[in-house]
Every structure is written in structure tokens, then in C-alpha cells.
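Hi there. Long-time user, first ticket. I'm pasting a complex I've been working with (about 915 residues overall). I'd like to know whether the download I got is complete or cut off, because the file seemed smaller than I expected. Thanks.
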Amino acid sequence: MNSLVLLLLIIAGGALLSYFGHRINQLLGNITVFIVALIIPIYWFTQVDFTETVSLTISGFHLEWGYNMYGKLFSMIVMILSPLALIYAIGYMKDQKKLATFYFSFLFSILGMTGILMSRDFVSLFIFWEIMTWSSYLLVIFLGKDVEKTGIKYMVFSALGAYAMLMAIVIINNNTGSMMLADYFTAFGGFSLQTKLLTGILLMFGFALKSAVMPLHVWAPGAYSNTPMAYTSVFSGALSKMGIYGLGFVVVNLFAHANMSIVGDVLAWLGAITAVLATFSAIFQDDAKKLLAYSSIAQLGYIVTGIGIGTELSVMAGLYLAILHAAFKGVLFMAVGAVERQAGSTDMTVVSGLVRKMPFTFFASLIAIIALAGIPPLGGFVAKWMLYESLITNGNFLMVIMIFLSSTAAFLYCYKFLFGLFLGQQEPEFDHVKEASPLMVVPMILLSLFLMVTGAYPGIVLKYIAAGMTNLGFHDVSWQMSVLTNTWGDSVNFQHIFLAVVVVFVAFLIFLTWRGYKHSTKVSTKDISVSGEMIKPEDNMTYSKDFYKPFERVLQPILKWKINKYYDEFGKGLEALFDFMRRIYTGNGQTYAVYVITFLVILLVFSKSIFGY
Amino acid sequence: MEGIGYKILGAVLTTILAFVVGMFYGGFSRKIIARIQNRVGPPVWQNFLDVLKLLFKKTSVRYGVMHHLAPLWMITMSVTTLMFIPILKDGLFFTNLNFSGDLIFLLYIMVFGSLGMALGAGATGNPNTAIGVSRGLTQMVGFEIPWVMALVALMIQYKTTSVTGLMDIQSQSGTWMMFSSPFAFIAALLAMPGMFRYSPFDIVGAPQELASGPVSEFGGKYLSTMMTSGSIFAFVKLTLYVDLFMGGASNLIVLVLKTFALYLYPVLWGAVSARFRTEQSVRYFWGWPAFFGFIALLYAAF
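Hi, the file is complete. Here it is re-exported in full:
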């Protein structure tokens, strides 16, 4: 059978098997999920033939599925992150109820994502998009927290995006007579300006909404925090990239090549603004989940900026950031989930000092935070370097400053995340905390290793990115294993950087540890220098509330604008309008009789202009 | 093999040079500030004595691996940054690895050490260190803006992102960038006291308030490593400024003279300034220095 169809059947079958397995017995269900989680990537990496296509005709619609390099690039993100997240979920969801629905929805969202990436026509794209949306919606409301506020909000916004896409698809079909993506791309040049803008912007609306670009991001903080953390790693890591996938097509393939790069510029500006404002919001969050959610929005802003600018280096930067973001956000959400499970809370004003209890989780989140902050020698710097270089060589100096501002401010929430959860005072109420189970720790460590390796050898990933970019219209994208060059000829050699850092680190480590380490005693965090006071063990010396109050005072004017307020006002306005219209239904039979008679009278009086005789 | 040998020798020599010069500058600054405050002040070589004394002190307590590694991160950062900056314009020993990195890399590697120290300081659990770190990071957002604006203006104006490229342009055209990109220079200069954490931006390590902030739990070898790293880093920053704005240096004497001339600015101004609160310093940096940075960007673009 065609390997692509088999792939989809495996995922769907895995979903059903996990559902029934968990209905029967939790252990059986866990084993099923584990096996499915391993089979899917193994099958994808070894057996799938990427040159095959599938053609179906269902009730007059011609569906076609097949891979191109660009879709393969994003599928790699899905195929690597999802199995690790599934294995993590086995450990994370151990004592929860309704696990059957959880795994069913999880695997169906993976099905949706895989389907999107192999769709070659709009109908299957839309079908799989909707599958992905409703299965993730089921997971957002899984825990039953704040269903009205976050779940409904997510559904409404996703529906808005989907309907926008549907409108665009219908208009495209009207104009080209076919549903194929390829036909849309070739015919785009011949459209009128109006149609170009209409279809492009409608499609972009749907994609940008999934990528949480401001001002369409308001569903994201709630949705990312209320989902079980096992799924949030996939939600934030892979699902948001589906929007990037679409944006890449629309902005780069279509607009940039049709000499309408102003659309890309507007998108890039939106991305930069998103990055700055979301970073500022992230800094002042007390809940680690919300902090990571806003941080995801900010990182997606970088990616969108990279894609919006549209030059070779910037698109490479955007795609590279997309891959890295999936990895490090996956780790961070997994780490927060581990902390939540072991310590009971993710509020940073409550939890503190877990570094000695959960060292592996700390190590993985440390690597992920370093990658997020973009500090050499890890992979995040590679992506940031490419982004800055492309912006500078392109001359967008204001945007560079905004991205820099966002990056520097990102250090603040990075430190807050690590300090609030892991470092700081060890309080007695968390003495019972143990390291998370290996099922949860091993995926985190594996992803951290990936981040470390790509820091020295970014070429490993660049190979696939360069191949994927051919589908976006860039040909012969050059890349090297360790050296990156910008258009002015300046280059950075990452292998040297990594080597230099490691050598110096080891040299001074030997120097510091050689004598003296054994003579000192390890003490608890209560044993600190406090200028002569005596701290009792029950004194709470944790500094975590209002962690960045001075910065908050500086940003006071900006933080007052909340986009949520505008949406709420708009919603209230609509409600008032509907409330007014409700009065038509008085419940009184005589009023309805009056309506009917009035309607007939109007028909009679104006029959000439309505019916023509 | 010869190349590698010279490179390693050059790396070690550069580190020693940076250490010695940085320590002396620290000593000079203490002497100058003391004289301004009508005191005698410690001798110029006092920093060396401090480092030696600390080196031989035994540390009796430790707080875990992160705490042990924190000074390590700092010194790794300082030395690594040193490797990627051309100390002299050309020459056998002191150009090091500057062909493998560029300005953006330098910008980011400078944060690496502070992050490491922040993490190690956080591992001790002392609330003073945490407050100091949060203030330090907030201030960093402040001064980075004019500093980055100045650098981006330079990069756009001369279409290169490598430090050697900028130095070459200066030697070719014969004028220092101080004069050909004046606004960038002013913005970078105004951002300099923030980078050095000198008064009025020294609230991070306020001794009277925070027990020296982030360094309060480090003693003995750790503190000596941090002092060394601090002095090397001061030298690194000064050299970077000289390379970018004052045409670099072709021999060590000229380099020392230029860097010392530049160093006098934060020292002298700091000696007579009162300390800003954190939000005041951020607002200051986002005011006039950012304005000059913005002018520099416009000047570079048109």
C-alpha cells in the first residue's frame, strides 16, 4: 500500500488502540502508547517513500497528498518532538483520569499535523487543519480549568482563522478552477491586485492566528497554560509551526516573488512588535506556565519576522529558529510539567530551590534556557546571528533594535524562570520533592543533547533547511557545517567558538577545583551571610515576589495597553447589539401575528420592485 | 603546528597582558577616586595583592555545583571574548581568533558570564544576590539599547560586521570612527558607565545595601577568579572601544595610552556621581543616550 496512506493509518490506528487500551487497563494503555510512540517515527524515518503521491477523488473533490522538502522539514519537527512528548506523557499523566481521550486527541492532533504537511490541495489542507484544531481543543479543555475563558476563546479564534482560510480557498477555486496548491502558486501572478491581496491576507490571517502573532495572540497564554504540560510541549513546539509553514508559503513563495514584499514587511513589523510586547508580558508573570506561554509568543514573533523579511539568510534564520524553538520549548514545558508533578505547583512565588532535588530537570532546562536566550555556544545563537545579520544587511535598523531589545529583555524572564523554580532558598515544604521519573527525564535530556550538538555543528540542521527552501523559491542555498557567512562576507566559525569555550572552561575548572574543593563543606541555603543575624529554619528568605519591580515601573505606560481589553470591549458591544435584537422575540403570539402581516403587506406594496411585476 | 603553537602562546600572552593591565587600571582608578575624595588611597598595585591574598584563602563552605561553576563561567567568558577581539592590528601574537567571530557574537558572549554568575549566585539562596542580579539584568536592558544602536549604526554605515573590518576602514581612511561616526561614538560613550557598572550605575553591587549583591557569597578562590575576570573584562571592553572608535593600536604602548584615556571617563564621572536607582538608570539610558543612538542610526542610513 502507499506508504503515505499507511503512515496516516498507523497514526489513526495508534489513536484508536491507545483509546481502547486505556479503557481496558492503564498499564496496557501505557504500553500501547509507548509502542505507538516508537513505531510512528521509526516508520516515518525508514519506510516512508517521500516521492510517492496519493490521489483520491471523493465526491467530486480531487485530493492529492505528497511530500516536498519544505513539508519534510516541518514533519521532522513533528516526528521528533511528538514521540518524545508521548513518552513523557506516559510518565506525566500517570494518575489522571480520562486518559483514553487524552491519548486519542493527542495522536489525532499528530495525524492532523502530518496530514497538513503532506497536503497538496486545499481541501485536504483544510480537513487536516480542522482535525488538528479540534483535537487540540479537546486537550485544552481536558483538565476542565477555565473552560469558558480559555477553551471557548481558543475555539472561537481558531474558527475565525479557519473560516478566513475557507473564504480564501473558495475565492481561489473561483479564480483558478482547481484546488491544487501548485495551481494557486502558478496562477497567482495573473490575479488582479484585489484578488492577490484578498486571498493572500485571508490565508495569512488563518496561519498567523495559529502562530499567535499580535494582535491575534490572545488565546495563547490561556490555552498553553491550561493544557496538560505533556501536550503543551507539542502544542507550542509543533502546532504553532503549522502556521509558520503556511506563512512561509504565502509570504515568501507568493508575495515576495510577485514583487509585493510590502506584505512581508508588514508581517515582519508585526513579528517584531509581538516579540517586544510579549517579552515584556513574560517578564512579569508569576506562573511559570504563563511565562513560557508568553515567551513562546515572543519567539514566534522572531520567526515571523525572519520569514517576513524574505531574504535568503532571514528565511533560513526563521526556519532554524522554528526548529530550535520546538526543541527548547519542548524541554521547558516538559520541565515545568515535571516540577508541577513533583512539587505540586508552578507558581514561582511558591516553589523555590529545587536544583538539588531535581538536578536532571534543572540541567535540561538550563541548556534550553541558554538556547532560548541565544547565548553562544549553543544553537540559539546561530539562529539569532542569522536573523540579526539578515536584518542589518537588509537595512532594517529599527527592527534590529526592537529584536535586540526583546532579546535582552528575554534574559530577564530566562533568569526568573531558572531562579524562581530551581535556585534560591530551599524551603522545608519542598524537602519531599524527588527527581521526576526516567520516562519524563530522558526525553528532556535527549532534546538538550540535540541543542548542544547543533551549537557547534549547525550544518546538521541547515542541510534540511536549505533543501526545504528550494520549495520556497530559493535555489542553491549555500551552507557549511560550522561556518556562517552573511552577504558582506563576514563570517563566524561556530566550531571554533565552541572549542574555545570548552577549552577555557575545562582549563579553569581544573584550576578552581584542584585544591580546596574537598576541604569545604556543603551547606544548605539557610547558611548565608546576613551580616550577623541568625536565620531560623522557618524564616522564609525567598526573594520571588515582584522580582522585576523596577523594570515594571519603567514600563508602566506600555503595560497599560492590553489587547485583551479591546477584544473584551468588542465582545461587549456585540453582546449589547444582540441583546437589543433579542427583543424581537417577545414570546407573545399576537406580536408574531403582527410581524407576519407586516411582512405580507410590505411584499404586496413593493411587489413591483421586488418581483418585477 | 607552528601556527597552533604561536596561537596558543598568543592566547596565554594576551590573557596575561589583559590581567596585568586590567589590574593596574583598577588600581589607578582606586587611587584617582581616593585623591578626588581627599584621601591617600591604596597603592596602584593593590589589586594584585588582593587577588593573591584571596587565592590563598581557604573556602570553607560551598553551595553546590552551580555555585562552584559560577566564577568559572565568568572567567570563561572574559577569556573567550578576549580571544575574539584583535588586541593589536596585526602581529604574531595578539590577533588571536578574531577572524572567527564578529560584533554580534561579541555582544552575546558578553552576557554569557553574567548569566553564569547570576545562576551561581542564585544557587546560594541569598536574597541579596537575587535582588542584585535582578537589578543588574534590568540595568543591562537599559544600557544595551544605546550601545546596540551605536554598533548597528557602525555596521550599517560601513557595511561590515567584523571588528577587523572596521579597523581596516579606519586605517584606510585615516580618520578615527570617533570623528566619522560622531553620534555613534557619543551613544556608545554614554552607555559605557553602565557597562562598567561604575557610579552612578553601581546599584547592582551596592555594598551598603545589598552586601555587594551578586558576589556576596563568594570568597577565597572564587572571589579571586571573579576579580581577575572583572579586570580582564574591563580591558576587553576598553580594547573593543578603542578598536571600534579610536582606530585600534599597532603596538602595546599606544594601546595602553588609548585605553587609559578612555577609561578615565567612567572613573572620573563616577567619582563625583550619586547612585541612580534601577528604574532611574533605565529611564536615563532610554532617554538621551538612546536619542543619540537613534540619530546615529539615521545618520548611518542616509
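A couple of notes from our side: The first strand of chain A starts at residue 53 and ends at 58. DSSP finds 24 helices and five strands in chain A.
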